[in-house]
TrEMBL record:
Belongs to the LpxK family. It catalyses: a lipid A disaccharide + ATP = a lipid IVA + ADP + H(+). Pfam families: LpxK. It comes from Haoranjiania flava. It comes from the Bacteria. The lineage of its organism: Bacteria, Pseudomonadati, Bacteroidota, Chitinophagia, Chitinophagales. The keyword Disulfide bond does not apply. InterPro entries: LpxK (IPR003758), P-loop_NTPase (IPR027417). GO terms for biological process: lipid A biosynthetic process; lipopolysaccharide core region biosynthetic process. One of its GO terms (molecular function) is lipid-A 4'-kinase activity. The gene is lpxK. The keyword Amino-acid biosynthesis does not apply. GO terms for cellular component: plasma membrane. Transfers the gamma-phosphate of ATP to the 4'-position of a tetraacyldisaccharide 1-phosphate intermediate (termed DS-1-P) to form tetraacyldisaccharide 1,4'-bis-phosphate (lipid IVA). Its EC number is 2.7.1.130. This is Tetraacyldisaccharide 4'-kinase.
Length: 362
């Protein structure tokens, strides 16, 4: 009997769902038309609002880009982030506090809250309502970063940063469910900055030029290219404790959408890799943690560690009582700009804030 490969089956299913995608696309286009014609209104605010997002579902590097902006700005400004709080167990607006957990605000906001305790982290499905609530709770806020909000038209951000993945450019995609687009390709015209993420570190100038031509940016739109860089793994409960991967037997625990680059990186640097994969945004339970400990205990190697992502770490850290004696390490990632363009990108962000502040004064 002939069995179709899973990727071929997915292609067939997506082809059959094409009519649904056409209907979905028409609804999106109508919605955008109403906003563009100002029939539906977008709110603006009298402080710099930076939006980080994409046009598709899936991981394009929004979380590490938000973290990049936080690191860039937090020394000189009082920064706050606002996210929807995907898959959290709460509803409405919520400002993170001392006892907040990932179940309260979601994985990525909890990651911001844990990594940057000096900033304000809030969640709220309706950003236009959540921003005034955030400013009421934290009136000292000088900059708001909207995480994953490019398609959220009720707020008109002062600076829109659009991310698109090197291996799946939005210009080559189509509306859900036949494709991955949740917004129209023409919405890219609202971006001030377009970043092609997850590029090969050795991307050539010619490749850069070809991709830029395909994106066809408008006059004034800046296009940057970045790749995912990995830092040295640090202990889940003692971040100053580092561990080199070389020679280690790694049990990789992931609950993220795209694991390809992560697995390739660890395979290139560790002695051996085993994967224990969970669904994206998996909410780890007590039994899950006991199961992964048992799996780790069954590994015969003497030099063995568990490695997980930053997003998964915020949930696993809730099980300190049973994981404290287990060598669990977190693999941090960050955006690294190609072609020595980091200074130009940084300057663009800082100039936007300075110009906004000067305009408000005048």
């Amino acid at each position: 009997m002939l069995f179709m490969r899973s990727d071929a089956i997915i292609k067939v299913i997506r082809y059959l769902l094409f009519p649904v995608s056409v209907i979905y696309g028409l609804v999106v286009l109508l919605r955008n038309f109403l906003y563009n014609k100002k029939i539906l209104r977008s709110a603006t605010f009298n402080l710099p609002v930076i939006c980080v997002g994409n046009l598709s579902v899936g991981g394009t590097g929004k979380t590490p880009m938000t973290e990049y902006l936080i690191r860039l700005l937090k020394k000189d400004y009082l920064v706050a982030t606002l996210s929807r709080g995907y898959k959290r167990k709460t509803k409405g607006y919520l400002l993170a506090g001392k006892n907040t957990t990932a179940r309260d605000i979601g994985d990525e906001p909890m990651q911001f809250h844990t990594s940057f305790p000096e900033i304000r982290v809030a969640v709220g499905e309706q950003r236009a309502e959540a921003i005034p609530a955030l400013l009421l709770d934290a009136p000292e806020t000088e900059i708001i970063i909207l995480d994953d909000a490019f398609q959220h038209r009720p707020v008109n951000a002062g600076l829109n940063i659009l991310l698109t993945e090197f291996g799946n450019l939005y210009v080559d995609d189509f509306f859900l469910p036949a494709g991955n687009l949740r917004d129209a390709k023409t919405s890219a015209q609202r971006a001030h900055i377009i970043i092609v993420t997850k590029c090969p570190p050795d991307l050539s100038v010619r490749q850069k030029e070809k991709i830029t031509e395909r994106l066809n940016p408008l006059p004034g739109q800046q296009v940057f290219f970045s790749h995912i860089a990995y830092n040295e793994p640090c202990h889940l409960f003692a971040r100053d404790e580092k561990k080199k991967l070389s020679g280690s037997h790694v049990l990789l625990i992931t609950g993220i959408a795209n694991t390809g680059k992560l697995i390739s990186y660890i395979q290139a640097h560790a002695g051996h890799v085993e994967l224990l994969r969970y669904s994206d945004h998996h909410d780890f339970t007590h039994n899950d943690v006991l199961a992964l400990i048992n799996r780790f205990s069954s590994v015969a190697a003497t030099d063995k560690i568990i490695v997980t992502t930053e997003k998964d770490a915020v949930k696993l850290s809730n099980f300190k009582d049973i994981l404290m004696g287990v060598p669990v390490y977190v693999l941090p990632i960050h955006h690294a700009f190609l072609f020595d363009e980091q200074p130009e990108f940084d300057a663009t962000i800082l100039n936007f804030i300075k110009e906004f502040s000067a305009k408000e004064v005048n």
